[in-house]
Amino acid sequence: MLFRQLEPRTARTTADVIKFALWPFAIMTVLNRVFIKAINGFITDDYRPVYNASFEFLNGRPVYTANFDSVDPHYLYPPSGTLMIAPVAIIEYELSRWLFIALNAAAILLAWYLLLRLFKFGIGSIAAPALLLAMFSSETVINTLVFTNVNGCLLLAELLFIHLLLARRDLWAGAALGLSIAVKPTLAPLLLVAAVRGQWKVFITACGVPVALTAIAWPLSKDPEKFFTHVMPYLAQTRDYFNSSVGGNGLYYGLPHWLILLTQIVMAGVVAASLWLLWRYYRHDDLFFVTTFSGVLLTASFLLPSLGQMYYSMMLFPFLMTVVLRNSVLRNWPAWLAIFGFMTYDKWLSDRWQSTGRALEYLRVTFGWGLLLLVVFCVLGDRYLAARRAGRLQFGLDPAWMADAPDSRNGSDAATPGREPVREDDPVAPEEPTAEREPALK
Q: Its Enzyme Commission number (predicted)?
């Protein structure tokens, strides 16, 4: 509201001031996360089992030897992932870990740039420092770097996939997705996005790349078959620790199996209805459809199957960025309450109210993912019912006023935060400054 009361020229200046004020915060936050927090590390070390497995692979020894009775991080990558990541063990552990942190930080920064370009923002926009600061202040980026895992590279693969999919470069889009699946199947649900858009060539490389890498890795590995006989049964189980899925928290709190199953079925129905409405009424709005459809898919894949961890939420950045689109389903406070639940780095454990604090800390991610899915369902459902009552379903779900709402894709002044569009009949529209208005220097 404040910017709406200012003249356009003043509003533009105000936005520039905010932009330049944000850049130092964003840059220093990035440096802190990479060179202080990540290098310091934490008791949780996702990189040690990866390094050890890579070392064993390079020396021709068994890789899948983890004792799954412990709660320590385990090595869970498939043979194709082992082949890709094995070079990290060529050098000593500490330097290797630092380089892996740098690799993921660079991948996140490149993903940040691709995310800006996806929504038609440039480095000079106020969105650039705001997005950078938000990303590196989130739990998912901080713990990805501190725990030293591969999620930063997966985020980059996701942004490459979305860019290439929208550009109809199907084989390259599939290759980007296939490389990520070869390491971790986190992004595998995105194959459904390509399927509902009829981009079937994506499947050639998305499936072919991991299969080819597995074929290469198999004769080079000592025990590749144990991934399927030892690791996959463990992955199929629902564990009651470090697990924010419905099943994981249900087990932790001792809920009956029927209640867990009922919750999963209800939420699966919510997801299915949301995906159908998106496909039925928004599939021709390419950017909104791909980013929102993939966001709902990935959120459901974190919440409903056997394992969902908080830092998986990094893959939702493209979905969260849809807030700048005129028909976004995230322009409401319940959506951002949900996002706070799984994105914030805050800890809610309390010394004074221990049981309440523990419940808030352990459940906020599960409730956040669940609330986000419910928000999408309610927004789309409300639009559908309103359109049906008005008899305009054949024209889509968006009301008429939304066609002229601000949107980052139109490249207009309305897309720039802090600026109002200038109308031709605006009596206070500013004139361009001229040299004659500047005081002469004596």
A: 2.4.-.-
